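Structure tokens please, single chain.
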Amino acid sequence: MISKTPKLKIEQRLYPRVEANLALRVIANGYDFSTTTKNLSCLGAYCRINKYVPPFTKLNIKLNLPIASSGKNESVLECKGVVVRSDDEGDGTFNIAIFFNSIENSQRHKISQYLKQFLPQEPSVASR
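Here you go.
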């Protein structure tokens, strides 16, 4: 597992992104990339790969998500995605933004539960 403590970047999004290095497998057009996420939300991921994949390319995704509360060390989530942005880094690598366009609610919930541990907690009504 390639995870370290994610860095928090405060956002006002419905599904906030958290900087996290999680193992990710991206399969597109006969190519199979093993990489890590740079950031993750319930809606998608951002990662670096070593081949240009154009926007709107359909992907198969496998994400290794650490699950602290389960008896296992990680859970492998599988879903489908699409490239929404591909940025050339100039060194032969490309940062791609992936939108999870076909993901089961239970998988999205697992991502949400993982990310919640790194997000600031809203103060409860009793503590205000």
